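*Target chain*
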Amino acid sequence: MKTTVTHNRTSVSALLGLGSFVAASICLQACQTPNQPNSVPLAQVVQDLPPDWVELPPGDWHLTYLDAPTRAALLDFRKEIAAERKTSAFKTRGGFTEPTNDRWREVNDECKISYCANAVVIGRNLTPELAGTALSVNEAYMNSSVVGDVDFRQMQDDWARFWLMNKPSMLSPYPIVNTGGRP
């Protein structure tokens, strides 16, 4: 009876050891999941851009980041727009002339360029494409993917070694031919 109790204790400890090994393997694999590409802060700068600079209210915070000549050109264009809206030609046409619409697009483009070139906007993140000190977001993601892939494949080999299935037994007194195709 005493041998049975010892055998049961051995079985329980073997099961606990196996469970611990499986849990540790899962935890270690969870650490190696590839990093998801985070949103690049440059995309946030582009999202901060208003769709139409000409229609912004005069006290909008975006205007503080424009350089002085661009801000002056925007204010002058707003005055031109206000004057054109008061004309009878605007009321009969029901809209602006094509040159005014072209100038509108040009002013919006100049304001976007000025905003994105502002030192404060650039200073929010000087390296928007880097995830760490040396790798870009895509490079860090690919590096994590490769490491995770190698680790998953190594886990198969480790599992085979744990169950002693990686090579034939050496306990036989007769020569054993390795038919597994592995050296």
Remarks:
- The chain is about 60% helix and 0% strand.
